[in-house]
Structure formats: C-alpha cells, structure tokens
Design goal:
Chain lengths: 285, 600
C-alpha cells in the first residue's frame, strides 16, 4: 500500500445528528480514477467537501501523499495539490476565460508570490502581500519570465478545450453557456497541476452529446496520468472512465470495486432500485 | 447604577423597535434597509412638528406619525427597493442608503437643520423607587413596546399575512409557488417596519427631549447592530439585541462618556461578527450557496476606448485646462481631481475585491490629520507628508478593519460603514478642535498656494494613481483580487486566501484615500472632524458606481460629473445630497455597471 495518493480513514461528518458521512475509508492511487456514486443524500458531495477542506471533518483522517490535510483549510489543501470543481459550477463571473485559468495557477507560482510561505501567518502575511503588490506595480526579471510561463500554461489549458473555449478566451465567464462554464472550471482546476483532481458532477445539466464530449476529455486527462476523484450520477460515464467505483448510501460505503463488479453487486442494485429497509440501509456487507 | 439601567432600558426600547423592523425587512427581502434608519429621524421631526408647531395632542400625533411613516415606506418599497431586491440585493441596499440620504435632507430642508426642543408631553420623573427615578413617559414607552411586540408575535403566529410573512422569510420562491402574494407580504413588512421606525423616532424625541432630522442614521446604525447582535432575521433576537445593546451602551457611556458611544457600538458589532456572526438567535449556513458580495456591478463590458483618448485626456487635463481656465474653474478642478484620486484608489476594493465599503471618510480623515500633524509638529515638508499620510491611513485603517474580512454578505458593508464612523469618532475624541494654519506646499522656497499650483499637484498625483491602478488591474494580483470578489469559495479552492486579498485591496484604497485627505488638508489649510461625514463616504461610493465600479478611469469621469458639474451648477449642499442619492439610484437601476460599461 505504499502506492497511495489519497488515504481517507474513518471519515465522519454529521449535521445536527444526521450522519452525512459515517466513518468511511477509501484510497486513491496515483493515476487512478475513482468514482463515488450513490443515491441523493448518500453523502457523496459531503465527502468531496471534506476532502477539499470546504467542510471540516468531525472524525477520521485524510492523508494526501502522506501529509495530513484534514485540519487544513481549502487554500492549504489546494497548495498541497488537490483541485476541485463544484456541483453547480463556480467560475469567476467577471473574469475572462483566460484569467479564470490564470487564477487557478495561483498556488503554483513562485516569482509572483515572494515569501509565499508566510501567507497564512498572522501579521506576517503582509510581507508576501506587499511583495505581490510590488511585483504587480514594478515587477522583477523573474516575475517577467514567469509571466511568459503563465501565458504559455493558460494557452495549454485552453487548447484542451480548443473548439469550445478557444474562441472565447477573452470573454467574461458570465457570458458563457453552462457547459462552457463547466469546461472553464475544469481547465482552471487543471491549471493548478493537481496531484488529485476532484470533480463534483461535471456533467450535471448537460445533454447527451455534451456528456459524451466530457467523457472524451476525461479519458484524455486520465491518459495523461491524472488521478481523479469523481462524483457523478450518469452511470454510463462512470462505468467507462473509472478504474474503481465506491458506492455510498446513508453515509456509508456499501460496495467498492471495479466497474463490472459493482454493477452486479446486489447491495448496489438494491440501493438504486429500492426495497430499502430504513435510512442508512441494512447491513449488507 | 439603577438609573443607568433604566437609561439602558429606554435606549434599548428604541433600538429594539428599530431592530425588529430591520430584521423583518431583511427576513422577507434579504435587503438591509437603510431607509428604515431615516424614519427614526423623520418620526422624531414629525412628532415635533405636530405637537410643538401644530399644537396637536400627543395621542393624535402619534398615530399620525405612524401612518405617514408607513405610507412613505410603501412608496419607497414600490418605487425603489422591490424592483431592485428581486435580482440585486446589494444594489437594493445601496439604493436604500441613497433613499435614506434623500429623506434626511428633505426633512432637513423642510424642518430646518437645528435641534428642536420636544415639549414634555408626559411627566418624566414623577416616580421614585429607592434611588430610581422614572416617569409616566418611560412607563408608557415601555408598555407601548411591550404591547406592540405581543401584537406582532400573535400576528406572525396566527394572522394570515403573518404566516405568509414567515413563509416568505423562509423561502421566497416556494412561498410564491404556493400562491402567497409575496409582493403584498413585502409591502406589509415594509410598512410595519417603517411605522416601527417612526414609533422609535417618537420615542427618541420623548426620551431625549430634542429632535433632529439627521439623527436617524446614527440611531439606525445602532439599531442595525442590535439586530445583528440578536440575529438578523429573528424578531425575538431583535428585541433581545435591542435591550442588551441599550444597556451595554448606557453603562459604556456611564463609564467612558458620551463621545465614546459610536466607538462602543462599533466594538460590539465587531465582536459579534467575529464571535457569533449569526447573532445570539441566528445561524450561519455552513457553505454559502451564492456569493452575496459578488461584484454584480462589475458585470457588463467596459466601452472600448480608442487609444488616442489617453494622451488627449492627459493634454486637456494637464495643459489646456491649466492654461485657459479661470481660478474658479481650477479650484473646482482640484476638488474633482482629489475625489478622482480617492475614488480611483477605491475601485480595487469596491469593484475588484467586491467589498462595497461605505466608510471611506475614515481613511480620508486619517490621511488629512496625519499630514496636518506631521507638517506642523514634526516639520515634514508637504512632499514627505503626502506619502506618510497615505501609509498611515492604510496602516491604521487596516489594523482597525482586520477583524472584518472573514465576515460575509451585507455585514461587511455595514462593518466598514461602522468603521468609518468609529474612526472619525476616535479623531474627535483625540483632537476635538479643528486644526488651523496647516502649511501650504512649497517647492524650493516657492509657496505653491495658487489654484493653478494646487491643480497641477493634484493632476500629477492623479496620473500616478491611475498608472498604479492600471498596473495592478493588469497583473496577476489584480486578477486574483477580482477572483475573490467574484466567488470567494471558488477562490479558496484555487488556493487563493480571500481574506488576505480583501485586506490588501482595502489597504490600497485606504492609501489613496489618505493621500486624498492630505491634499485636501493642505489646500483647505483647516480641518475638523465635521468635514469627514457620511456624505463624503457616500460620494466616493457614488463616484465609482457612476463611472464603472472597477474602472479607475471611470472614477475620473464620475468625479467630473458629480463634483465638477454639481459645483458649476451651484447646487446647495442639501440639494447635492439629494442629487447624489437620485443619481445613485438611477445608475444602479438602469446602468448597473456604470456609465462607461455596456449592460450585459
């Protein structure tokens, strides 16, 4: 088990007594695509919010590349190398597509962020802030070199969605279609060069052909060796893209395995098709 | 001590009435209603007018005031608040702020600006219990509040519209789908809130014994803090918050004196926002579904400017005007330039980081005082004092504002508003008299006190300001700040620490506000705390919204129109405030991106 990128152990989170995530454990290996599926309210999005630091866990631990991140805030986790997209698509509405992607690179920059290691410390964080202000107004030779790299990287990400985002690179994100916002969001997340990419229903609200297009792109990203943690309702897509699938219900993992194994698991069929005996499901393990 | 407690209860009584009104409107419309604030002042003035001028009996005047305030509230809701609240809560808040300025000044024009003595309609100290003294007046006030609160809670619990109000407060969309006439519910809530505001105003007049048209904002701000303390949107919370705050304030004044009042209230606000941002009775959602502070105003595309505009504007502003303009125009021009500097610096906060700070008069005042004091006491030259003023404004304002960057939604605007008021109050405490004979700028022994010299100095500073702002906007930093303003949750997920960048944006804006304050001080050669009013803050906000909230050059255009045109058209100060208010409402309504931005 040395080859583990993300290791979640006994993770718990409750909302006023309701156990949304009830002691789950799973791992993601480098380069692996793991999907979490399950009925509505089974705790999938809460799990993602815990892994990305949007919510704080009430118990258990999360390790990324051996470092504990369950106590870190979202920004820290992003710096550790987890990038995410949101269920409803959150782009920076007033920024152009290219600028959205550039902001995604924030945690990878060096010359633009002098003394960046102080940026989470009380009072001392003004040192990097004023440093960034100086870079913005005056600049240094190193920051100008990095500027060229930023522009290069932004172009690379836009090229990934060339036909869709290419013509719109300087359009503000609020003017984009829903699907293009999702693409912008994925491009922004990839710009972070994440160790783990976390996608929350990337095809929500998309039609079949758009979903097929996202599937193609996810397969391309996977082929580049990108580890992905995916929450998705469209089972065809999940079955095609995933190396491994985790099925959740009532805050617990009820099944786990390769797509074809999960597909035949009676517990999964029951969770999806009914015959349920009470919330949380009966113990089917 | 017991008398202080009674004093606190009576203050709390007023705040509770105000807080309940604010909470009610916030609950059903999700709008912080500044217009409510004006009803405190208006209620007091109307009561004074009916009782002292017209000789009506108090018991007739009281319902009359309530009816007038309620009717006015309905008009405001129909004409301004509701059309905006549906899609832009923050715009609606700004508009209510403008409405409150308009109301205050109409009231000031109609009733006069002076403090009016309110006749004693009920005995004020005819009872004694031990050391305690109180009067029929106090008992009546507290009883009326008690009755109003009981009636209100019964109405909300059992009344048909009362239930509809509660349903609307929980989920407006769902209420609408269930056939609840949400529009009517909002009108009713607004009318109730306005009448409560008027009632509170009458109580202020009864309790203090004087009425003043512009006292509303101050009391309204306190009532808002009470509502926040209790939990915005919770009526019980509003009552509890009102009384708790009233008592805390009364004891604060007892120990530290009346001048500390605004500072005490501000400190309480900050403590509440940090320790329990949902208030005593409220809750804060864990994950905000929508960014409340989002830069709605930043949507829309700036008009494309041909390249020749910039050198042409430089030549006209820097060469042609100084050569041909009269001293009067140049003096007006210096005002335009100074406000353009302050507003251009403000665009990074208001437009990019999405923090609509409503208290820029605070850092302007810090800059003016610093500059005056270091030139007079430490014999700095003007040229050294100018950046020092900017730095001290940035540092002091940032230190005072540091607790508020984690605060969400409308609270942050209110907190900055309180911050501006508190800064000026602190200055008043430290330096109550004005400062005279502030030295004028010199250049190698030549005194630069002519209008043209001032104009050129200000022009130079403005050019530097615009260059700096342009560099920031085009940099990675500028994009990051805009990202924070657009969606803070998504920014965090991209590794951007939103709080840091809001604080930095605010510090940059405070720096230029301080520089502007320094320029003002050395040109007036006299400053006192009354110059740094809420109006000044409102003006800065109006200028940036007019020109395009995130466009530094838009600030120049806004300043030319709002300062230059108003001055050259010789508007009186009262009329100007009304004009600013109207401009703000119209721009927000019809051109939310500013006049240099195409609607999207």
């Amino acid at each position: 088990m040395s080859d583990v990128l993300l290791e979640v152990t006994d993770l718990e989170r409750h909302f006023e007594g309701l156990k949304a995530v009830d002691g789950i454990s799973f791992t993601v290996a480098p380069g692996e695509v793991v999907s979490i599926i399950g009925p509505n309210g089974s705790g999938k999005t809460t799990t993602l919010n815990l892994v990305t630091g949007t919510l704080r866990a009430h118990g258990g631990s999360i390790l990324l590349d051996g470092a504990r991140i369950d106590r870190a805030d979202s920004a820290h986790i992003a710096e550790h190398g987890i990038a995410r997209t949101f269920q409803n698509g959150r782009v920076f509405a007033t920024l152009s597509v290219a600028d959205n992607i550039e902001v995604g690179m924030h945690s990878t920059l060096r010359a633009h962020r002098p003394f960046r290691r102080l940026s989470h410390l009380f009072l001392l964080r003004w040192i990097p802030l004023l440093g960034e202000l100086f870079i913005a107004i005056i600049g240094t030779p190193a920051s100008r070199r990095e500027r060229a790299q930023i522009d290069e990287a932004v172009e690379t990400e836009i090229r990934r969605f060339e036909t869709r985002l290419g013509p719109r690179r300087d359009e503000p994100a609020y003017s984009l279609s829903y699907a293009n916002r999702r693409r912008t969001e994925i491009a922004r997340a990839l710009a972070l060069k994440p160790k783990l990419l976390v996608l929350d229903e990337p095809t929500a609200g998309m039609n079949q052909s758009e979903t097929a297009e996202v599937l193609e792109q996810l397969l391309e990203i996977k082929a580049e060796g990108q580890a992905i943690l995916l929450v998705e309702h469209k089972l065809d897509l999940v079955m095609t893209v995933s190396d491994r699938i985790i099925v959740m219900d009532g805050g617990r993992i009820i099944s786990e395995g390769r797509p074809e194994e999960v597909r035949r698991d009676p517990a999964v069929i029951e969770a999806y098709l009914g015959r349920r005996r009470g919330l949380g499901g009966v113990d089917l393990a | 001590m017991l008398n202080t407690l009674i004093d606190g209860l009576l203050r709390g009584n007023v705040y509770a009435l105000g807080a309940v009104g604010i909470s009610l409107v916030f609950g059903v419309m999700n709008v912080v209603n500044f217009a409510q604030f004006s009803f405190f002042g208006l209620g007091a003035m109307l009561a004074w007018f009916f009782v002292a001028q017209e000789g009506l009996p108090f018991w007739l005047a009281l319902p009359l005031v309530l009816v007038i305030c309620g009717a006015l509230g309905l008009v405001i809701n129909i004409s301004v608040v509701r059309p905006l609240a549906k899609f832009l809560p923050l715009a609606a808040m700004l508009s209510t702020y403008a409405v409150s300025q308009i109301l205050d000044n109409v009231s000031q024009i109609s009733f006069g600006a002076q403090f009016r003595v309110f006749p004693q309609v009920l005995p004020t100290s005819n009872f004694h219990i031990g050391n305690m003294r109180f009067g029929t007046s106090d008992v009546v006030m507290l009883s009326i509040t008690a009755v109003v609160m009981v009636v209100m809670s019964l109405f909300l619990k059992y009344g048909k519209i009362g239930k509809a109000i509660r349903a609307t407060a929980q989920d407006q969309e769902a209420a609408l789908q269930m056939g609840i006439p949400v529009g009517l519910v909002q009108h009713v809530s607004f009318v109730i809130a306005s009448s409560l505001g008027g009632l509170a105003g009458v109580f202020i007049a009864l309790y203090i014994g004087v009425a003043n048209p512009t006292s509303g904002l101050d009391i309204g701000l306190t009532a808002f803090v009470a509502a926040t303390l209790g939990g915005l949107g919770s009526l019980v919370g509003g009552v509890i918050g009102g009384f708790v705050l009233g008592i805390l304030e009364a004891f604060g004044i007892y120990f530290f004196g009346d001048t500390s009042r605004e500072i005490i209230v501000f400190v309480i606000l900050i403590v509440v926002l940090i320790v329990r941002p949902g208030g005593l009775m409220g809750k804060v959602p864990l994950i905000s579904t929508e960014p409340l502070t989002g830069t709605f105003l930043g949507k829309g595309r700036p008009l494309r400017m041909p390249r020749w505009v910039w050198p042409a504007a430089f030549v006209v502003g820097g060469v042609v005007i100084p050569l041909v303009a009269s001293d009067y125009v140049l003096t007006t021009g210096t005002q335009v330039l100074i406000y353009a500097i302050i507003a251009a610096g403000f665009t990074v906060t208001a437009g990019q980081s999405g923090v609509l700070a409503l208290g820029q008069a605070g850092p302007i005042a810090i800059g003016a005082y610093t500059s005056a004091l270091v030139t007079m006491n430490l014999h700095f030259s003007f040229w050294a004092a100018l950046p020092v003023a900017g730095l001290s404004a940035a540092i002091i304002a940032s230190v005072l504002a540091s607790p508020i960057w984690g605060v969400k939604g409308h609270y942050i605007s209110i907190a900055t508003l309180g911050l501006g008021v508190a800064i000026v109050a602190i200055i008043q405490l430290l330096e109550p008299q004005g400062i005279y004979n502030i030295p004028v700028p010199q250049w190698f022994g030549t005194v630069l006190s002519t209008p043209i010299a001032y104009y050129l100095i200000d022009f130079g500073v403005l050019v530097i300001t615009l260059l700096v702002m342009w560099r920031i906007r085009r940099s990675h930093l500028g994009r990051v700040i805009s990202a924070v303003g657009s969606d803070e949750v998504a920014a965090l997920a991209s590794g951007v620490r939103g709080r840091n960048y809001k604080a930095l944006a605010f510090a940059i804006s405070a720096f230029f506000a301080g520089v502007g304050g320094s320029l003002l001080a050395h040109q007036y050669t006299y400053i006192d705390p009354t110059m740094f009013t809420m109006l000044m803050s409102l003006l800065v906000v109006t200028i940036v919204i007019m020109g395009g909230v995130s466009l530094p050059y838009g600030a120049v255009v806004g300043s030319i129109i709002l300062i230059g045109a108003m001055e050259l058209l010789r508007f009186t100060p009262e009329l100007r405030i009304i004009a600013y208010g109207l401009v703000l409402i119209l721009v927000v309504r019809f051109r939310p991106g500013g006049i240099l931005v195409r609607n999207s």
